[in-house]
C-alpha cells in the first residue's frame, strides 16, 4: 500500500487484493464544490449547536459569567470616549454627539476587528477536531462567525441603550430599522474575512501577529473613534479621499451612524460599496478556503 499516492490508487490497490471498497470514502481530500456544499448543509445542526455552546461557555470561568457579554462592550466604549472625547477633546472634529459617535464606532467595529485578529488561528485552534472527524473544514470559520453574530445580540442592545441614555440623548426613529440590513452585510463581511484569514493563517502562521497590527490600523483609519475624513481632508489629496470612500469599514460605520444618530438613510453609494465588499470577499474567501480543504489535516 505504500506505493499508493491518492485515494483512487488506494481503492485500486484494495480491489486488486480482493477487498470490497463499497461504502469507503476518502478522508482529507477536497470534494467537488457541489458535494462540499451539500455536506456543509448536512452539518448545519452541528454548526449551530457548536456556536451556541462555545458562546455560552465563553465566560464560564469568570464569576460574572455571561454578564461580561454586556459589561465588556460598555467598558470598552466608556474607555475610548474618556480618552478621545475627554482627555483628547480635539479629536471630536466638530462632531455634535461625540459620545454616540464613539459608542457606535467602537461597539460595531469589534466583531469585524476580531474576524481579522482571530481568523488566522481558527484552523490551528480546531486541529484536534479536524484530525478526529471528517467534515467540511469550512464549518469551523462558519461556526465562529455565527458565534460572533450571536454575541452581537448583547452588544447591539447595549449600543442602543447607551446612545439613548448618554446626553444628548438619541431616541429611536424609523431609520433605526436599517440596522437589520446593515448588520446582515457586516456579518457577511466578517465571514468572508474569517475565511480568508483562516487559510492565510494556516499557510503562514505569522499572519496572526500581522493581522493584530492591521486591525488596529483599520480602527484608527476607518473613523471608529474619530472622524478620519476630517483629518485626512487637511492634506487635500484625492487619493486619501478615494481610500476612505473605498473602505468598507468606514462605509459600514457611516451607515450605522446615519441610521442611529442622524435617524436618516445614508447615501446610496455607501450601501453599494459595503454590499459589494461583503458579497465579493465572502465569495472569494469561500473559494480560497475550499481550495485548501485537503491540506487542513496536515501537521505543521
Automatic annotation (TrEMBL):
Single GO term (MF): ABC-type transporter activity
Membrane topology: Multi-pass membrane protein
Record-level GO cellular component terms: plasma membrane
Transmembrane residue ranges: 69-92, 175-198, 210-228, 268-290
InterPro entries: ABC2_TM, ABC2_TM_bact-type
Keywords, ordered alphabetically: Cell inner membrane, Cell membrane, Membrane, Transmembrane, Transmembrane helix, Transport
Any single biological process term in GO: lipopolysaccharide transport
Pfam family name, one: ABC2_membrane
Record's keyword annotation contains Ubl conjugation: no
Keyword field contains Cell membrane: yes
Cell compartment(s), UniProt: Cell inner membrane; Cell membrane
ABC transmembrane type-2 domain sequence ranges: 64-292
Family: Belongs to the ABC-2 integral membrane protein family.
Protein name as annotated: Transport permease protein
Species the sequence originates in: Brachybacterium aquaticum
